[in-house]
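Figure 3 (text version): structure tokens given as input.
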């Protein structure tokens, strides 16, 4: 039998006791939560419902966007929970045409499948609201060397220069393509133009010449 000093045995004993208390604590916490939260919530059928006339879900296609077939399978569930609007943030997943095609990711949605999804959503009673970034969160566009001249700060791709007429021209073309695509499916009442988290502003010479504050 290996030799153990009394001190080591004492440390081992304290560890075992501490672990035992931890297991008991976790089990007790689970029982309490299960008994007084989940069961109570499940049986509380008389809880008042929140009634909202307009409920919009934000579909953000940045990063790893889901397949449109999967999104279409969610429509009945969203409808069941009172959702009647979809705020769709396309970024580089929209199938742009012409010179703007460089904005579309290699696996961007095809026009035919996107049209089919939007048609199904509209037929199910959902209003479509495109979210088109126009100030901050512009990495999907300004990361391309061809559009680097529109950056507010040449070293960062997040913010577009608001003082350049070329920025306005670019944004008009981008918004125009999305509007025309959607109008063939259903009228648009709203467009969300982003404008949050503009991390670089008032950096370039054009902006500084205006003598404006960051606000």
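Below: residues designed for each position.
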């Amino acid at each position: 039998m290996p030799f153990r000093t009394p001190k080591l045995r004492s440390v081992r004993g304290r560890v075992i006791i501490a672990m035992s208390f931890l297991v008991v604590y976790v089990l007790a916490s689970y029982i309490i939560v299960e008994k007084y939260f989940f069961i109570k919530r499940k049986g509380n059928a008389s809880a008042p419902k929140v009634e909202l006339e307009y409920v919009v879900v934000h579909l953000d296609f940045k990063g790893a966007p889901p397949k449109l077939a999967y999104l279409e399978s969610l429509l009945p569930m969203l409808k069941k929970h009172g959702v009647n609007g979809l705020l769709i943030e396309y970024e580089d997943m929209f199938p742009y045409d012409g010179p703007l095609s460089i904005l579309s990711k290699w696996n961007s949605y095809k026009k035919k499948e996107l049209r089919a999804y939007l048609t199904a959503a509209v037929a199910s009673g959902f209003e479509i609201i495109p979210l088109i970034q126009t100030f901050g969160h512009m990495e999907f566009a300004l990361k391309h060397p061809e559009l680097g001249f529109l950056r507010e700060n040449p070293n960062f791709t997040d913010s577009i220069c608001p003082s350049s007429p070329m920025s306005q021209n670019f944004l008009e073309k981008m918004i125009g393509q999305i509007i025309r695509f959607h109008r063939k499916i259903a009228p648009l009442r709203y467009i969300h133009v982003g404008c949050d988290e503009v991390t670089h502003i008032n950096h370039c010479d054009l902006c500084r010449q205006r003598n404006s504050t960051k606000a």
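The chain has two domains: 1-47, 56-208.
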